[in-house]
Amino acid sequence: MTDKEYCLDGKGERRISPIVCSLWQTRPSPMSEVCRAKASSRRCCFLLRLVHARYFAWRSSQDCFKVAWSSHKSVHAKLATAASDVSSEQSDEGWQYCLRKGQMRTSKLPYFDWTGPLRPYPISKMREVPEGIEKPDWAVDGIPKIEPNSDLQTRVEIKTPEQIERMRETCRIAREVLDAAARVIQPGITTDEIDRVVHEATIAAGGYPSPLNYHFFPKSCCTSVNEVICHGIPDARKLEDGDIVNVDVTVYYKGVHGDLNETYFVGKVDEASQQLVRCTYECLEKAISIVKPGVRFREVGEVINRHASMSGLSVVKSYCGHGIGELFHCAPNIPHYGRNKAVGVMKAGQTFTIEPMINAGVWRDRLWPDGWTAATADGKRSAQFEHTLLVTETGVEVLTARLPSSPNVFPWLNSS
């Protein structure tokens, strides 16, 4: 690493030469030695963006610093204002921004080249699970022990009738928990409040919220708003009229997991977002319709990709469906895009998720500084739906299917 390169990941594997200040829609300005020194100590600029070649010629001089200071100062003023937009009441309760996949907190908004208008807000403390609730092995220290080394990472398990019955029960609880979350979604509610509803409903049913402390994830569910594709962390931001929000719930009960998610409208949503959400719902339904013994896993992606492409939408390639049961994530992997190379065929007794993520723009994603939140690379909106499925002798059973009591939140279901 040369004297003009800076490390981005703490390992020396990701580096950057020109140092710039990243703020959404802010044009980078030339920087001086003083600014570079501050940048290296993280008091000034966070080193997260490569600049276009025409900006590579900044000069390290005091003159440069003076010339650039007026615009540079305004950038820092905006960032300081955003970072301090947390009430004293929240600060007293420990509300802070999340970093390093949940292992660190900071009182200041992280510097990042945000792809869209959404920003992270401070998060509350991790919620507690009472004694007597059966917990997965990561509940205490955040590290899964059995899952990473299990042979089920390469072998697709055929569930026993006893396992299947436990999964039916767990998946029904997961559905009821998600429905409880759906009922409280409206403009003005925070995603942290949605997380509280999910947490309390899961505990009341005798279950453990599987995401909680899984690889240090700090909350009991994922809430992905607007341009966030998946793994959004519930925080203090209030949902606004016109938002879309995905709530992803997984419950651990009687030794097995049940996983599902849905994307909801917040107030009055524009037509393009309505079409995006409906198309994503249809992608999942069409994929489920082909599930039966003998079907190749790779065909799921072909069906989803075909339907999304017809609507001018793109399919996320970075995340996929997965096997589920006594392990949260295991084989098989279920890609949602076309021309994938997934191996294997479906057999009766297998359980897995299908969870297409569909974007209004490009399929690529950018990871936020919290290490979890995946946002669209172009800042356009994304939607997702997910079910846990059981392959039967004659077809498929949707273990997380909607119930007669599920809230009526999708207009297209009323006309079907």
Automatic annotation (TrEMBL):
UniProt EC number: 3.4.11.18
Metal-binding keyword on record: yes
GO molecular function, one term: initiator methionyl aminopeptidase activity
Catalytic activity: Release of N-terminal amino acids, preferentially methionine, from peptides and arylamides
Positions with a binding annotation for a divalent metal cation 2: D259, H322, E355, E386
Xref: Pfam families: Peptidase_M24
Function field: Cotranslationally removes the N-terminal methionine from nascent proteins. The N-terminal methionine is often cleaved when the second residue in the primary sequence is small and uncharged (Met-Ala-, Cys, Gly, Pro, Ser, Thr, or Val).
UniProt protein name: Methionine aminopeptidase
Source organism: Ananas comosus
Phylogenetic lineage: Eukaryota, Viridiplantae, Streptophyta, Embryophyta, Tracheophyta
